[in-house]
């Protein structure tokens, strides 16, 4: 059976019962902007005679998708992840990157594709951006308006996105350790409910005053890179606040793009922070750019790492890539 989204000119909703829509909203997500678009999308789909359900529990989402792929009666399933980056990551981790269905040999791309194909069946995820940053949706140009989401459901194209595992935890956009991860760690401890960009102001100031940029040991694809003070790896060229830290990262090349800030003094660390904010960090001679499929970072002192803007834990961290692990439905590109 061919996936109906492989044919870009076809309207997926013209054939009765060919596509089922599950709108997934995380119960932990805040109020967010544009939440009224979720019931509006549900109404639009119902008016078209499409089977649609709103789901807000991970176990329920997993059960419904497994039922669909097992009995084959519902054809293809599109999961609309209505929320921020965390909601999208949760949906993708549940459907494609959990212990039960993620590839067992990340270093083998053919193994990854085979495992994902068996586990995911006829399923794709569509991001409906209702969060603070919405990094992935912004990258692909997906808007939160119900009409735009419906257009992507009907005519969007499939993009097989790489993913990463950091100490066994999945991520889609980035994994970093050092200064910015310390900001995320403090934000994690302070967070109460929905956050905005202004919520990061106090954590940023506190980290600027207290962080000492301890030395890190970096290894990429088995090669010792040496000492540094800050490591950032990207699957996509996006970061919070609209910052462009690694503009060349591609989400479907099977590689992570690594930015390495070498010098560990406080003065150099603050210079790196200023360089990132002004977009000039890549011009510095003590900033390296690498690519790889496996990354290991360690330190003798406690250093935080973050995944897609969420606190992940403390070093050491071991990162591997999962090529083409997540089938995304994104807006069609005009040719």
Q: Classify the beta-strand content into a percent band.
A: 25-35%
Order of helices and strands: EHEHEHHEHHEEEHHEEEEHEEEEE
Mean pLDDT rating? 86
What's the CATH H-level homologous superfamily of the largest domain? Answer: Probable inorganic polyphosphate/atp-NAD kinase, domain 1
Summed up, the domain count is 2
* Shape field: elongated
Structural class: alpha+beta
The largest beta-sheet arranges its strands as 6-5-16-13-8-9
Low-confidence region ranges: 1-7, 104-121
Radius of gyration: 20 Å
Please explain how this structure is put together:
The protein is built from nine helices and 16 strands. It is 30% helix and 30% strand. Mean pLDDT is 86; it is low at 1-7 and 104-121. It has two domains: 4-161 and 324-330, Probable inorganic polyphosphate/atp-NAD kinase, domain 1 (Rossmann fold, 3-Layer(aba) Sandwich); 171-323, Tumour Suppressor Smad4. The strands form three sheets. The chain has a six-stranded antiparallel β-sheet, sandwiched between helices.
